[in-house]
Amino acid sequence: MNFKYYLQGKRIRLYIRYNRNAYPVSTDLSIDPKFWDSKEGKPKNAYPERIELQSYLDNFKSRISKEIIKFIDNNPKYSYEEIKEVVKSTLQKKEITGFFDKFREFNELHKDKSISWHKKYNSILVHLKEFEALQKITKKDFKITYHSIDLSFFQKLQNFYIDVKKHNNNNIRKNLQFIRVFLQWSEDNGIQINQSYHKFKLNREEERDIIFITEEELLSIFNYDFSDNERYDHARDLFILQCATGLRISDLKRITKDNIKNGFIEIRQQKTSNFVTIPLTPYSEIILNKYDVLPSISEVELNRTIKQVCKDCGLNEIITISSKSGNKLNEEKFEKWQKISSKIGRSTFASLNLAKGVPEHIVKSMTGHKDSRAFAKYVGVSKQIQKEATEKAWRAPTDDGTIIKIIKHQHKKVG
Fold it and tell me: Is the pLDDT higher at 378 or at 84?
């Protein structure tokens, strides 16, 4: 039995020859004949996407030949017609499916994922449509398909995120990783994929600026009187509870009296399924005792409201946020309240606990972190808190109210 590719017009077909019979199988792919090597049955070296196309054709032939060999091993007295049925069955099981149709199916089958996961999906879907439209300006027949997603595709998409969308490198990495997860899911579900996409290496995650609430700011927000504004009062309480527990808003919404046992909050995290046990603090205890049922606020509404809460509480320190897009370093200045969101509660909990001397492994057990690299960012922040606190302590006034004055010449270097 022989397998070889031929062109029929511009269409690439795989011919399966058995005795004097030849069975043509459509690949649904085409190529300009000037780029096709008829003798070898493959694209010429001059074809711009030769490696990607050859990889696809090799995989297409491989999965059909494997099914035929498996059938022959189990049926030594096979017929030509039976071989044709094996091929048809193989293609029906693993037919080449529209990329965007499968991408939507991928989303629909993951209804259990978080709101942020589905927001990420929707954003990427829009980005891919926009990217496809831009590519058609220079290549009218361009279309995102499983075959067109190769190494070059990822490189161009990465440049699109840098040059057009102006995304920072960490966001780009997350978006490209999301697409790779989808492609792997597609492969696992029998879709024929251009394997060269595996060659694209994601950039390493870059360190990002960690924003957190200081202990003084936390106390200020906690004590602020919002009794005349229930919306602000509820948002403040949930945010303080996040800072005091490290829980995500998705977990706070699920807390009931049953989760509070012997001075601890015990809950299985929705995002990771990790079971965590978190000691109650004066902050969390007071807020939990304040409500029979915690206020119900969406994450979007909490993020919007907590900014105004922090603005009213005077969190107007100017902070600089740095990020890189490609090789370009971008720095933006904000008043601190502008960058506060529910996620800051989690970073505050980890950073303040570490700064107070709680061992890393205990803090990780409370936040549910398994990845030491992801947790390391909080360690750096806690050291900065400790440094600032120490410097502040050593700048403290003396008993008579004057500042300690250091006379450097009295303490020259010895030796």
Answer: 84
Query: What number is the average pLDDT over the span 112-131?
Result: 84
H/E/C letters for each residue in the chain? CEEEEEEECCEEEEEEEECCEEEEEEEEEECCHHHEECCCCEECCCCCCHHHHHHHHHHHHHHHHHHHHHHHHHCCCCCHHHHHHHHHHHHHHCCCCCHHHHHHHHHHCCCCCCHHHHHHHHHHHHHHHHHHHHHHHHCCCCCCCCCCCCHHHHHHHHHHHHHCCCCCHHHHHHHHHHHHHHHHHHHHCCCCCCHHHHHCCCCCCCCCCCCCCCHHHHHHHHHCCCCCCHHHHHHHHHHHHHHHHCCCHHHHCCCCHHHEECCEEEEECCCCCCEEEEECCHHHHHHHHHCCCCCCCCHHHHHHHHHHHHHHCCCCCEEEEEEEECCEEEEEEEEHHHHCCHHHHHHHHHHHHHHCCCCHHHHHHHHCCCCHHHHHHHHHHHHHHHHHHHHHHHCCECCCCCECCCCHHHCCCCC
Q: Write down the pLDDT at residue 192.
A: 80
Is the full-model pTM beyond 0.85? Answer: no
pLDDT tens profile 95-116: 445 788 889 889 888 887 877 7
Res 30: pLDDT: 74
Is the pLDDT score of 412 beyond 70?
A: no
What's the start-to-end Cα distance of the chain, in Å? 88
What pLDDT, on a 0 to 100 scale, did the predictor assign at position 365?
A: 85
